[in-house]
Amino acid sequence: MIKDNALKAYDQMVNQGLLIDNSRQRFILEDLSQRVSGWWPPSIPFFYLWGSVGSGKTTLVNILYECHRGKKQRWHYGDFINHISNDVLKNIISPKDWFVFVKNNFKKRELLCIDEWVIEDIAQLMIWRSLLQSLWKRGVYVVVTSNLDLDKVYLNGLGREHFLPTIEVMKHHAFIYDLIDSVDYRQKEKINFDSPFIRARKDFLENKIAQILSHNPLQLVDDIILCRNEDLLCIDFEKAITPPIWRKDYIRWSSQYQYVLINQVNIKLMNKNLLTNWVRLVDLLYDEGAFVFLTSDFSEVDLESSCLQWPERTKSRVLSWMQRQKIWAQQNLK
Description:
Rossmann fold; 2 domains; globular
């Protein structure tokens, strides 16, 4: 059963030191997985997980998604909106066309997970006003994560009054889970421990990290992919985010390897094109649940206090990797 598998997966992450056990997270995961696995969808099959950065929203949805055995789709919000805008809107003339689109692209009781759900402008507002109704009518289980209380979605935005009836339906008939917590559970292990990954002068090959993660023989490749085997990929940061390396490469990397090692991440090396690629790479690796290690010229404090133009989402995800690799180092590099 999906609930049992989801809780088992959660326990495994706790035992591996990747999560700190939290009763609120357990309750939400158990309730969410039980409802999604129900034989009939509720009248409004919408599940809204919101909370502070690091409270576990994406982790819970990733566990749910991996344990779900039925038809399913998982998107980052930016990718989903880009897909809708580029490939769908040209065929949408009236609201009923949304239902035709949903019918052609989603099965009944399909699971649709969208991370970092938000409404950014009136065009997106009009999309969601019609699209959500069509998804619910089709019986698609829509699970989204957000940093915002539902009452604050698109607050003070142009035309927000057109979306208020939908918000009221969500508040009274959908399933809302809050993970508000003063603790960032990814950062609980901030202790006096010098991580071997921060300001590292040696790469992953020289300090044997790659060999510890995977016992399979490593193959040296080129100046972008430093080495790889069946489990592990080690890449050079600067070269890996420099065009013509692009999204298709990142999709392959994120889906194919359990461990992705990024060597010499530079907090200052960012023009617009490099930053765009870096954000894409981080999102794909994070959404696929890859175990990411990185050596860097900066610490967690440097990243949190810096004014660099990384999106807050990207900062948050990189910080979560730095915390997780620190826990791993405590357990494996004694």
